[in-house]
Write a structure and sequence with these properties.
The complex is a heterodimer of chains A (482) and B (815).
Chain A lengths: L1 E2 L4 E4 L2 E4 L9 H7 L18 E7 L5 E7 L12 E3 L1 H4 L7 H8 L9 H12 L35 H9 L8 H5 L10 E5 L2 E5 L3 H10 L4 E3 L5 H8 L5 E4 L9 E3 L3 E5 L4 H8 L4 H6 L6 H4 L4 H7 L6 H7 L3 E6 L2 E6 L4 E3 L2 E2 L6 E8 L5 E7 L10 E10 L2 E10 L6 E2 L1 H7 L6 H12 L12 H26 L1
Parallel strand pairs in A: 1-7, 2-6, 8-10, 9-10
Antiparallel strand pairs in A: 2-3, 4-5, 4-6, 7-8, 11-12, 12-17, 13-14, 13-17, 15-16, 18-19, 19-20, 20-21
Helix pairs in contact in A: 14-15, 15-16
Chain B lengths: L21 H5 L17 E6 L6 E7 L1 H4 L4 E5 L22 E2 L7 E5 L2 H10 L1 E6 L6 H7 L2 E2 L4 E4 L2 H7 L2 E9 L11 E6 L5 E5 L4 H12 L6 E5 L13 H15 L3 E4 L2 H7 L6 E9 L5 E11 L7 H9 L10 E9 L14 H19 L3 H7 L17 H14 L2 H14 L3 E14 L8 E8 L5 E5 L8 H13 L6 E3 L2 E2 L14 H28 L6 E4 L2 E4 L4 E3 H10 L5 E7 L4 E3 L4 E3 L3 E14 L5 E10 L7 H21 L34 E6 L24 H12 L16 H12 L9 E2 L32
Parallel strand pairs in B: 1-13, 11-12, 15-16, 19-20, 29-30
Antiparallel strand pairs in B: 1-5, 2-4, 2-6, 3-5, 7-16, 8-16, 9-14, 9-31, 10-11, 10-13, 12-21, 14-15, 17-28, 18-19, 18-25, 22-23, 23-24, 26-27, 28-29
The chains are: A alpha+beta (482), B alpha+beta (815).
Protein name (chain A): FAD binding domain-containing protein
Keywords (chain A): FAD, Flavoprotein, Iron, Metal-binding, Oxidoreductase
Organism (chain B): Luteipulveratus flavus
């Protein structure tokens, strides 16, 4: 493995040795220390995007996808051998990049502090290989195919966003002769085995699963990380430090996606962005969820395994996966075991996973229910944490609910199944009367509390209206098809 | 047309140009204070020692354990302060407190070689606290009679007579939340000491002069030994008007004690937990309407949540009282104000400076009462507009009220309001689970600092021998485009193309005794000063040109770098400058500006404190989901009065950005303090970007049409323009009122709903529930004359002190 003195990152086309820095040093702080102060710290928790930079990540084929991430969350060691582009690397004052030009002339910057981050997020979307003019632009997609969700993780306090949206929608196709466009046609840098140490602390990236499992078996206190979108917040906001951080996000064994006749098996280290692209619409419930899950900057790093591994009582995936009857495949040096997600969580941020085990994949049984929905209750539509999250999956045959699976987040110490509600639905006719009665049962599920996101009363009300809404939406669908 | 407002032919002002730093912004090369750390050798990092009590005495503070942490250089405590241990000007903000007044109040600061060492060191400092009872909410403060500062009243006529005259009298209360500034760049200072002991502080501050004064009084230095520079700010919004001083002083103190540069940057958590915010307000009111819906009388008591110290709470309150009537003529008025002292951050200036809170009171009243009066809210507002010849309750003539009517009608027309409201009625009739509404609200906002003394500014314009021009002025750039406008003003006044003029960072050793860049007045004041300096130089150059071209000086014209004698020859600017130098003509000038015609008596709350009013009108359409209370803003139409715009792209940005920020305050941004009796009482639970949500792209109105009001020349301001920083924020009232009306649409016609502020989806959901239930106990507006009289100010309350607005010389303590 590469030792500390060999850890290096290619920044704006130039190889930069990382030097002797503590392993918790974020990409953002390191960039600023080497004089690239374009990326800013606005929140240090991946919420504002002022730190956004582009990294070269493997595309779904053999090419490279410029991928915007929050540089405030990831340790610099995680980019060993990787390529980064910052706002400074896109263009210069005398030779602005098309994204920079549109932002500048349209009034896309006022104080300018968030601007380098916006520019990087926007540039990643500018280079997106499958971006093409949209015949029918909608509220979140411009005529040039620009997906506004690309900017869902960037906050601006000055402009009100209209000029930023106009800049995004004014972008033409990426020029084929642009070096960054050309770069997308070549493979992305491979993951590099990394062993970065500083004093007693180390950041380690094994390149195979057995080494990773061995490390975890030998070091029960090691912190396994993937996208660092959760651990990074602990580090920057709460001063968490670990003696050993083990990076899993590039382990090939954890990055596979299989679809068979009876299940979809999603590798734990695939990012949510990769999962969304890989599933290609096969699981509509997840397609409904992903755009509501944090921001694209986060989804570009966050993994399905990490989301389950942190065991948040809210984390938006578990309610959806509970509704899908998903199973968790755990692996250790001793072997594999499969646990139903409904039995996985044991308490607040606790689960049946042993310290020496990793989540290898998440398995969703097929066929899927016909009626599914994901309801996220939050203050803000882009990039907010749910006060209540509801995953719903119903099988209705001949007007009768044959099977109901409902997952809830934000109403108990762990994500839970709404089992009483499921019982109130199953075997009953799919009618407004059944739904109204079941909605009253659902209102009493869980043990919601008052907190800064919502009152307990509102959470209960949202549990109650979720089924009413599903029924109204479904009835509307039926009306349309009829 | 005044000489101040008149424009020459082909002026650079009025041209639509991008922000002067736009190319630097987009390439990441624009520097902010913290970007200087890596460009400065040997920097020490400061980190605060904080505790978890809302109110407590510090009984013991032992820095020794921190000094054992590797990398820690020094711990700063009260004993280190050579001058005044106070971060403000009123003596109520100890820099190193012996009594903690809010959760997170720093009691000491650790300096270390790295930020990591400073953080670990701060955790090692041992502090013992003796907890004391705390007051966290305004209502607790009202009950405990915990007030601070003056308790002023704006009064006109006889409010009892007005109430008695009214056909309908309603009584209610209203509480609105404050707002976190959430400038993307947190507070930051870097201080250095030079070889002669002069202190140089680079600071993200809207008020470099006051930062300089506070640093000087903490260090016991005269002002001439302290220089403050602000390169630019990553947003200010009022949050860096008063709040940066103490942090700058800590950095400066550390630099003087260690001889090394000290950087103090608040991380986001510290910034949110330690620095002041927009004041939340509580209002008790009764209002009388005539049978045709005219407001006859308003009797109200506004209590602002000042937090732990006075800060700018008095002038904020004064502006709230001076805006409580917004755009409406009210014959009989009594509006009392008082400031609660609570154990929270010291609330401070925030875009609008109390104006929005005052105006929200009357807009909330109209929104709640319109259904009870059976009058369409659009009609109710229109009927009550000021007309020519009327005065505000504080005795100031309302000039140009017809502009408000013009803007209103323009919005109704361009926004197709009548047609769309009919469409909305049809939509609502056919949709059980979603309702739409369209509301129109006006803005009238007074421009100038309430306190007359602040309405002055200076500039220093330097012309070099090669003809290039460097402009210094006292205003700071926080994204509002002030520097862009000042460049345009200078280029216009000198008759030069824009590229011959540069602007230097704001420094107290270039322009002294500046006012804060605040109160939307930056361009008015500094523009006047820059123009004055340029005109002095131009006048001298005209004399030189007169000799050269053989025409009277009055017949020399400067335009686009060419100097022409009327009826004579011409020369270039560069040649003329060279000639002037050879003739020993001074090529630099200081400029000065004072706003004429202002007077204000803060003891009687009467006068004409404002140079003019800025007007605006917005129409917003929303759709509310009945299942969740979630909503989206479908379309917004705005007509706003910026006079003759100095810089249209900049002004458009201010209008849109202000509107969205206002909508954030009113709908999304939710400051929640722990009001329980538990161990975390007084803690701000929304202290991070993950819990305190700003508007993002997803909250953008789907359609946003903004027009500048035409024929809007303002005679009393530079080149006929008007201030634009604050007024557009209040255009967002239209969103809130639309949400109220959409929620009401879930109930029967004539439903009056109370809407909490902020109107989060949860708040809107409860408003929907209130509308749906016929006998809801949450409805708080009560009809009946004479209504319930609001609480009156304590006779023993101190008067408003102009000193609260910082003109009193600093009192030296400890001697």
């Amino acid at each position: 493995m590469a030792r500390s003195d060999a850890v290096a990152v290619t920044v704006n086309g130039r190889v930069r040795p990382v030097g002797d820095v503590p392993p918790h040093t974020t990409v953002l702080h390191w960039l600023r220390e080497i004089g690239l102060t374009g990326a800013k710290e606005g929140c240090a928790e991946g919420e504002c995007g002022a730190c956004s930079v582009m990294v070269a990540r493997p595309d779904d084929g053999d090419g490279t996808r410029w991928t915007a991430i929050n540089s405030c969350l990831v340790p610099v060691g995680s980019l060993d051998g990787q390529e980064v582009v910052t706002a400074e690397g896109l263009g210069t004052v005398d030779d602005l990049h098309p994204v920079q030009h549109e932002m500048a002339v349209r009034g896309g910057s006022q104080c300018g502090y968030c601007t380098p981050g916006f520019v990087c997020s926007m540039a990643a979307e500018y280079y997106r290989p499958d971006r093409s003019p949209a015949p029918e632009p909608d509220r979140e997609r411009g005529p040039n195919g620009f997906d506004l969700h690309a900017l869902s993780g960037n906050l601006c306090r000055c402009t009100g966003y209209r000029p930023i949206r106009d800049a995004a929608y004014a972008l033409g196709p990426a020029d084929a002769s642009d070096p960054l466009t050309r770069r997308t046609t070549e493979p992305a840098p491979l993951a590099v085995a990394t062993w970065q140490t500083y004093g007693d602390r180390a950041y380690v990236r094994p390149t195979d699963l057995q080494t990773a499992l061995g490390l975890l078996a030998d070091h029960p206190d090691a912190v396994p990380v993937a996208g660092c979108t959760d651990w990074g917040v602990e580090v920057s906001l709460r001063g968490a430090r670990a003696d050993l951080v083990v990076a899993l996000d590039r382990l090939p064994e954890l990055r596979e996606l299989h679809v068979s006749d009876d299940a979809v098996d999603i590798g734990a280290a695939l990012t949510l962005s990769e999962v969304g692209r890989g599933l290609a619409g096969r699981v509509p419930l997840l397609d409904e969820l992903f755009p509501q899950f944090a921001s694209l900057l986060i989804r570009n790093g966050a993994t399905i395994g990490g989301n389950l591994g942190t065991g948040s009582p809210i984390g938006d995936l578990p309610p959806a996966l509970l509704a899908l009857d998903a199973e968790v495949v755990l692996i250790s040096a001793a072997g594999e075991r499969t646990v139903a997600l409904a039995h996985y969580f044991t308490g607040y941020r606790e689960s049946v996973r042993r310290p020496d085990e990793l989540i290898r994949s998440v398995r969703i049984p097929l066929p899927l229910s016909e009626i599914t929905a994901f309801h996220k209750i939050a203050k803000r539509r882009f990039d907010d944490i749910s006060s209540v999250a509801v995953g719903l999956a119903l099988d209705v045959q001949d007007g009768v609910v044959r099977r109901a699976r409902i997952g809830l987040g934000g109403v108990a110490a762990t994500p839970i199944r709404a089992r009483a509600t499921e019982s109130a639905l199953e075997g009953r006719p799919w009618t407004a009367e059944t739904v109204r009665a079941a909605a009253e049962v659902m209102r009493t599920e869980g043990t919601p509390i008052d907190d800064q996101r919502a009152s307990a009363a509102y959470r209960q009300a949202m549990l109650r209206t979720a089924l009413l809404r599903l029924y109204a939406d479904h009835a509307a669908d039926e009306g349309r098809t009829a | 047309m005044s000489s101040l407002s008149e424009r020459p032919t082909n002026p650079v002002v009025g041209q639509e140009i991008p922000h002067e730093s736009a190319a630097l912004h987009v390439t990441g090369t624009a520097l902010y204070t913290d970007d200087l750390v890596g460009r400065t050798a040997g920097v020490l990092h400061a980190y605060p020692v904080t505790g978890g009590h809302a109110h407590a005495l510090v009984t013991r503070l032992d820095p020794a354990p921190a000094l054992h942490v590797d990398g820690v250089v020094r711990v700063l405590t009260a004993e280190d302060v050579p001058g005044i241990n106070d971060a403000g000007v009123k003596g109520d903000e100890p820099l190193f407190p012996s009594e903690v007044m809010y959760v997170g109040h720093p009691v000491a600061w650790v300096l270390a070689e790295t930020l990591e060492a400073a953080r670990v060191g701060a955790a090692a400092v041992e502090v013992t606290y003796e907890p004391l009872p705390s007051i966290v909410t305004v209502t607790e403060a009202i009950e405990a009679e915990s007030f601070q500062g003056g308790q002023p009243t704006v009064r006109r006529g006889d409010v009892e007579a007005g109430i008695a005259r009214a056909a309908h009298v309603f009584t209610g209360t209203f509480e609105m939340a404050g707002q976190e500034h959430f400038y993307l760049e947190t507070h930051c200072s870097i201080a250095q000491v030079d070889e002669s002991g002069q202190v140089f502080v680079q600071c993200s501050t809207q008020h470099p002069t006051e930062t300089q004064e506070i640093v000087a009084h903490v260090l016991d230095l005269p002002s001439n030994a302290v220089t403050v520079q602000c390169l630019r700010m990553g947003g200010g919004f009022g949050g860096k008007e008063m709040q940066p001083h103490g942090y700058a002083a800590i950095a400066a103190l550390g630099a003087t004690l260690t001889g090394r540069p000290v950087r103090l940057r608040l991380n986001r958590t510290h910034d949110i937990t330690m620095t002041g915010k927009r004041h939340g307000f509580h209002a008790q009111w009764r209002v009388g309407f005539s049978s045709d819906g005219r407001v006859e009388a308003l009797d109200a008591t506004l209590t602002s949540d000042g937090g732990w110290s006075l800060d700018l709470s008095e002038p904020v309150l004064a502006r709230a009282l001076c805006h409580v009537e917004n755009a409406y003529w009210i014959p009989d008025v009594r509006v009392n104000g008082r400031i609660a002292r609570t154990h929270k951050t010291s609330q401070t200036a925030f875009r609008g400076f109390g104006g929005p809170q005052g105006m929200l009171v009357i807009e909330d009243i109209l929104g709640r009462c319109a259904p009870l009066l059976g009058i369409d809210p659009v009609e109710l507002r229109w009927r009550n507009f000021y007309t020519a010849g009327q005065d505000t309750p504080y005795g100031m003539p309302v000039r140009h009220p017809e502009r408000l009517a013009t803007a209103w009608n323009q919005v109704l027309t361009s926004g197709d309001v009548l047609v769309r409201r009919a469409e909305i009625a049809r939509f609502n009739a056919t949709h059980e689970h979603a309702k739409r509404a369209l509301a129109v609200t006006p803005v009238k906002f007074g421009i100038s600092f309430n306190l007359t003394a602040f309405n002055q500014a200076g500039a220093l314009v330097l012309v070099y021998k090669d003809g290039s021009v460097l402009v210094n002025h006292g205003g700071t750039e926080m994204g509002q485009g002030l520097h862009t406008k000042m460049l345009q003003v200078a280029a216009t006044a000198l008759g030069l193309p824009l590229n011959r003029v540069r602007l230097a960072p704001t420094r107290t050793d270039k322009v002294p005794n500046t006012s804060a860049t605040a109160a939307s007045s930056g361009a008015d004041l500094n523009g006047g000063a820059v123009k004055d300096a340029c005109e002095q130089i131009r006048a001298r150059l005209a004399v030189v040109a007169s000799g050269e071209l053989g025409v009277p000086a009055a017949d020399v014209r400067f335009e686009d770098g060419v100097v022409t004698g009327l009826g004579g020859g011409e020369t270039t600017w560069d040649e003329l400058v060279r000639l002037a130098y050879v003739q020993r003509v001074q090529l630099s000038a200081t400029g000065f500006y004072r706003t004429e015609g202002l007077h204000w008596d803060s003891s009687t709350m009467q006068g004409s404190p404002f140079k003019y009013f800025a007007y605006g009108v917005a129409a917003s359409e929303v759709e509310v989901d009945g299942f969740t209370g979630a909503y989206r803003t479908r379309r917004v139409d705005i007509v706003h009065d910026v006079g003759d715009s100095l810089s249209p792209l900049v002004d458009l940005g201010q209008i849109e950005g202000g509107f969205v920020q206002g909508a954030g305050w009113l709908t999304l941004e939710d400051l929640r303090w722990d009001t329980s009796d538990g161990p975390t009482r007084g803690r701000l639970s929304t202290q991070a970007a993950s819990t305190y949500k700003l508007p993002s792209l997803s909250e953008m109105p789907e359609v946003l049409n903004v027009s500048l009001l035409e024929h809007a020349h303002e005679d009393g301001a530079v080149y006929g323009s008007k201030a634009v920083g604050e007024p557009p924020l209040m255009l967002a009232f239209s969103v809130r009122e639309a949400l109220r009306e959409a929620a009401a649409a879930f109930g029967p016609p004539g439903t009056s709903v109370d809407l909490a502020s902020p109107a989060t989806p949860e708040a809107v959901f409860w408003a929907v529930e209130q509308a749906r239930s016929e006998h809801d106990e949450r409805a708080h507006v009560v009809e009946g004359s004479p209504g319930r009289e609001p609480e009156q100010p304590s006779p023993s309350a101190e008067p408003m002190r102009p000193s609260s607005e910082r003109v009193q010389p600093h009192v030296r303590s400890g001697v």
